[in-house]
Amino acid sequence: MKRLYSIFIFLLVYSTNFAQYVEYVNPFIGSSNFGTTNPGALLPRGMVSVTPFNVSGSDINSFDKDSRWWSTPYSSDNTYLTGFSHVNLSGVGCPDLGVIILMPTTGPVKADPKEYGSIMGEQNAKPGYYQTQLKKYNIKAEVSATQRTGISRYTFPKGKSNILLNLGLGLTNETGASLRIVNNQEIEGSRMTGSFCYNDGSERLVYFVARFNKPASEFGAWKKMPEMQAEAAWSKTSGKYKYYKNFMQTMNGRDIGTYFTFNTEANETIIVEVGVSYVSIENARLNLEAESNHFDFEKTKLEASEDWNQILSRIKVEGGTDDQKRIFYTALYHTQIHPNIINDVNGQYPAMESFEIKESKDCNRYTVFSLWDTYRNYHPLMALIYPNEQLDMVRSMIDMYKESGWLPKWELNSRETHVMEGDPAIPVIVDTYMRGLKDFDVETAYEAMYKSATTEGSKNKLRPDIDHYLSHGYVPLQEEFDNSVSHALEYYIADWNLAQFAKDLGKTNDYKKFLKQSQGYKSYFDKETGLLRPKLENGQFLKNFNPDEGENFAPSPGFHEGTAWQYAFCVPHDIKGLSKLMGGNKSFINKLQSVFDNNKFDMANEPDIHYPYLFNFVKGEEWRSQKAVRNLINTYYKNSPDGIPGNDDCGTLSAWLIYSMMGFYPVCPGNPDYALVSPVFDKITIQLDPNYYSGDKFEIVNHKANTTDYLIHKIMWNDRKYDSYFINHNTITKGGKLEFFLKK
Amino acid sequence: MKRLYSIFIFLLVYSTNFAQYVEYVNPFIGSSNFGTTNPGALLPRGMVSVTPFNVSGSDINSFDKDSRWWSTPYSSDNTYLTGFSHVNLSGVGCPDLGVIILMPTTGPVKADPKEYGSIMGEQNAKPGYYQTQLKKYNIKAEVSATQRTGISRYTFPKGKSNILLNLGLGLTNETGASLRIVNNQEIEGSRMTGSFCYNDGSERLVYFVARFNKPASEFGAWKKMPEMQAEAAWSKTSGKYKYYKNFMQTMNGRDIGTYFTFNTEANETIIVEVGVSYVSIENARLNLEAESNHFDFEKTKLEASEDWNQILSRIKVEGGTDDQKRIFYTALYHTQIHPNIINDVNGQYPAMESFEIKESKDCNRYTVFSLWDTYRNYHPLMALIYPNEQLDMVRSMIDMYKESGWLPKWELNSRETHVMEGDPAIPVIVDTYMRGLKDFDVETAYEAMYKSATTEGSKNKLRPDIDHYLSHGYVPLQEEFDNSVSHALEYYIADWNLAQFAKDLGKTNDYKKFLKQSQGYKSYFDKETGLLRPKLENGQFLKNFNPDEGENFAPSPGFHEGTAWQYAFCVPHDIKGLSKLMGGNKSFINKLQSVFDNNKFDMANEPDIHYPYLFNFVKGEEWRSQKAVRNLINTYYKNSPDGIPGNDDCGTLSAWLIYSMMGFYPVCPGNPDYALVSPVFDKITIQLDPNYYSGDKFEIVNHKANTTDYLIHKIMWNDRKYDSYFINHNTITKGGKLEFFLKK
């Protein structure tokens, strides 16, 4: 009995030491309600994710990728699966990637997803692992991943079993693929991706090598043939899928794939490993050989779980309900998907806006920067919890400037997609610097920022309307839906950051100039409505102004993805100045409160995401922030597929939740002050990275009588009463204990 | 004045020594009336031909490749040009190749052939050179070739000039291409070909490297995007050509291409050279570097003309009209297009029915074997005039057996296309052997023939209905249009050849067996009609037999591409036996004469192509052959685009003309006897290859009073009276003079 007992003890220790954090992750959160996350298996910031692809091929699905604007390879509302894609975007609002699709089937080979797809049975997902049952075939499909490889284990019934690799189907709207069957256990090839947000001009190939743990008894390629005209009378394959048995030259085309067929015993498993690279097939093979566990699925799955657990363990929460822990750790999980690595194991990666190959040394090259979203809270959070990764992201951004001449805005696989507006790399880099993380090429970073802040519009890739901005102090409305106010608001916050950076670097003149520019928002202030209002080139405000226009992502004159209400407080760098404009604190508070009271707040998008914390700027009104934040958490975040209020935006909505549940929030990037509210949990311990911060941990203790209490009675910092509702990043990273005492 | 005079003399000498033969070639002959030859520029048996592609993209064309069964990249009846294709088939009845299309344009780049095509102005073609004017753009386009490269010289007007490389458009019905812009002067890529005769299963890639003599000022790729559904609302390129400026990764897809743009002065020429390979891009580059004259168009054109002149000079004709010389030398030119080389300059070629790469040593590897056509007269002619090439063709065929296990039937680029029927490699190889050309792997050749003549049907790639053939002595009709009689007739002639081969190799039992089999045709003889008649499995003849069914390529029970009349005499190995069956010489002559008198003869296809010579088998009736042959020449062959009666069938109809105009014809392949008729010319001198034949030349002198005389009065051989209307190949290749004395 003794031996069994010690195993039991070990498992207990094991589960608390290793499994406890990953157990709180529910990868299905966000996979409905346009959260656009998915339950695919991946490693933290992995290049590869192996994701069930269920948004095509059948009317029984609730959503089809071709029937509307659609941006995710997976929906919890759908049931018809057509395979597992190996490169995917998570939490974005536009379609791309979702390619290199593997699918197990049985019986005669069919290449048409409409024919070969299957209803999914019960699904299970944990960090680094996903599993479902294909009801049509009685196949169990399990997937896991390393950073640059995917692994799939299919348990087949007895008979003729097939593994399809479909390079035609994809979430991306780009087309074109190439494949070569290397032998009866290996395929190599490439797939075009790009046209993110239906924009052309950001195309790039992704390369792969797929290997099977067993030789196929039969194999071949397929291609969908075009419809012929008169000649259809003689061709057997006009408009049909044509199969090329044993074809071993390169197959190029639009809708192509391969099949590998095996004679399986009952419950026989076949394992496929897929290495991926954005550089070359050779590198995909190198990645596969370096990272794969040689078809050891269990080892890969265990290592993935361990990696995730380690990453998630940087924050330990105690107290709170199970659901609260689940939405918290799932949010943390969602912050670790993008930006993801793009460099191969040998360090090679494709240079920004180029087809050259570069090599990264000593650090990772990151990709998928949704900066208009993430500059607001995501990067501040990364700087606090994962400073090493955040610094690599900043270095990646500066290298992008070196390679292409411009900092990124919405970067995808070393291509600029030009999505959304502004100059958001500036606040990201300056914010990181202001949080004490300065180990990057500061001079080049300043040069890059200065360039986009001063280059004339016709040559300015980031600020095309800078000429008006500089001459008028604002961007005038010139076309009905030109998003002019949104553009300018982004420039103000960027210029404010640039000013802070200049100041720190001793560039006093630049400091003054950019600080002044950052105040230009005031010219948009319209006394009549008390809001920022679109302005014409002649200095007059736009007539027929409706501050509610633009709800639910409808177009709105002057504003991008939002109403005038949702942009009215979008000057986080000068809340006090805005408050004055609005007629002083009382008027400011009333207006802000009315946003919440009148249902004008949008939790699903970024421009107003800091609003609930702005009450903290007026002494005595902080309770409103505490209330608003707690209300929003309780209303919009859930332990269920619809548990994220909208597109997660590469972790931005998740970062908001993480901060908000911990009780502090970075209102203005570039300003390391956090606004404080009451935490959801009883205790939160953040492990600080000793390579970057002098403290070893930042503890938050929340003293309360009831789980639903949220109003703060008293705050203490390191056992002394703390009088402010803000605390600085550079204070907490020295280590210490922040205590909240809540009202009963 | 002396110097000018000597130049004049030189030009005279030059023109008689070099230019005389090529001057008589009219490459437009056969480019209408379904001759399916084309005026493209190529070298003798070159891998590359640069051919105007004018069968797509406009309703103003008389024929469109997509509107009917269509098998040629060019028609003299069309005027709308969409480029120049670099690999092409000549004189075939099915579509394939016609890809790697270059097109010069001016102004804005357009990728759609419907938009960028141009009306052609005056055209000029000589062996190895073609030229036309593109009226839409005022561009002069000239093309020439080496064996494995094409060269194009475009003379542009002043302005923005483009060279398009279209990999979407093609005559082949296969799809899929890949390209990469290497730099501003070079493109590499590949294009899928195959589906010859609308049959799937014979796919192979062709690779290329294209180089410009000047850097482009702008370049990019294009791809036709699929039509989107709901998403078309957001995409600017749904269903359209999408342009990828500066794209330098591999572009894969169905309808793709590149544009290279140059700022040209008035009359500036841009030259493009394209190297081709069926092995790899590397080999295409190697071929380009080894063969090209580094953008020296004039040198390439001159060398091409010289090569052609040398090849054509093997036969010198004197007398006759200019038109007669033109149809003669053009026919000889048309025999030198296919089979063409497929090996690269380094000897590498793709193995038969495989994707392995082999290397040929000391000889060329040939491809494009339309053997059901060419075994009848083409290969005997090649054995006589070009024995070195004919031996390499035989060696290529035997190597195909070694690589794939079967001799070829209709081989295209190392793939068997399974077009037409029978076992036609046997008569080709045996015929070559019987003409004294034995320097090939005779043992393996016999092994290969024996295999197809004895392997059971289910495993027999060449004779699928061999089981019935062996058990019944004939192939019974089992489906309405199963071509059963045609199949069997091919097996008889093959078995007769195999018998002769066995006899010579001392395999007496095999000789007897196969000779007996070759007599099986007699069981098809129907006394009622005096014709070969389809027979059922139970031994009864097909009821409702209409011997005229099958005219003009209509389907016919038992017969493939012909009527019972056109197959009635298709036992060239046993004309005497057939004559007996038909009731003796008189009855035989009457029946044969009735074919011509009643317009039942088809000059446009092969089964009856030897008929006009069969009168020679009955003493005293030879005048009928003389008359019939001369009538057919005069009726069907012309110095104009419609100057070939039907598909040239890779030189078969041309070989018929060459023999017929020279006055002799190989009635039965495998039997080196030629039937004699009167020549068209006054004198014909065939240079015999001293490496293979003991004679240095075979002269034919035709003594006649009037140009229209054709009836033979007397024949002399080496100054002695010759009593036969047949002469043996092995007699004339010892050298000598054959004299015809015609009746006035």
From TrEMBL, chains A, B:
Annotated ranges, domain Glycosyl hydrolase family 92 N-terminal: 24-277
GO annotation, cellular component aspect: cytosol
UniProt-listed GO biological process terms: carbohydrate metabolic process; glycoprotein catabolic process
InterPro entries: 6-hairpin_glycosidase_sf, GH-type_carb-bd, GH92_a_mannosidase_put, GH92_N, Glyco_hydro_92, PNGase
Domain Glycosyl hydrolase family: 283-743
Subunit record text: Monomer.
Protein name: Putative alpha-1,2-mannosidase
Organism field: Ancylomarina subtilis
Lineage start: Bacteria, Pseudomonadati, Bacteroidota, Bacteroidia, Marinilabiliales
